[in-house]
Amino acid sequence: MKKLIGYLRLMRPANIVTAVSDILAGAAIAGFAVVGEQPSSSQYLYWLVLSTVGLYGGGVVFNDVFDAALDRVERPERPIPSGLISGTEAALLGSILLLAGIAAAFMFSPLSGAIAMAIAVAALVYDKWGKHHSFLGPVNMGLCRGLDLLLGMSLVPEVIAQFGFLAVAPILYIAAITMISRGEVHGGKSNTMLAAGGLYGVVILAIVTWSIANHAYYALVFLVLLIILIFPPLVRAYRAPIGPNIGKAVKAGVLALIIMNAAWAAATGAILLAIIIALLLPVSIAMAKLFAVT
């Protein structure tokens, strides 16, 4: 049982729930659950959900595999440095998850499979090299989420060519969180929090613009909730950029990703799907109480 819990800790279950919300938001943009525009392929959406579960789980497992030496110093309680899970066992788990994620995407379509492969590559590049670069690291991590949104949009392939640019928003959002997280252990700088807040603002403005363009003003309700979730802990981290405050800002940003995705769905006109996405938040919060988010 301890070993099983160790494997789950490596996979970050609370974060995987947020990845599922990426797929649902992408599906909303593709027309799923929008009256009169529901794509016939929506009944197979579960393949894309399964894909993101495998891809995200595999990506974070490899993050711990590559960070094992550092974690022995900074986070010795984690599964690999504590000796609960060996590096080989973790690498095997990560490989199985990534391959399963890619296979599930190919079960839906070749395009989805190609996007899944790109996500897997982007995740491994970040885990091994990207995280060590102050600029490319956040962009690299954001790219994983942007591609995940495109994976959801691949429900209707033609939509990607038309609205694929919307994937820039999650790239900026996750880049902000990644910037903040660099000070999670030893503390950070107030200017970093300020820059992250600016990126959050750009994403919020983009959703507002999209909701106005689609006359879907109820998206503003989700945006208010998003602001309430992400900015108070970020302000506290700005005022006192110490490890614990930064950790809370990172956790809030990760969990609030669900509400950001709900806002995108609502801004597209898929209000019912937006509510379903938002209901994933308490699930993710409950899991975050059992398993670490960062």
UniProtKB/TrEMBL annotation:
The species this protein was found in: Dawidia cretensis
Q: What is this protein called?
A: UbiA-like protein EboC
> Cellular location of this protein?
Membrane
Q: Please give one Pfam family short name.
A: UbiA
Task: Give the way it sits in the membrane.
Answer: Multi-pass membrane protein
Q: Which InterPro entries match?
A: Prenyltransferase_related, UbiA_prenyltransferase, UbiA_sf
Keyword Lipid biosynthesis listed: no
Ordered alphabetically, the record's keywords are: Cell membrane, Membrane, Transmembrane, Transmembrane helix
Determine if Transmembrane is one of this entry's keywords.
yes
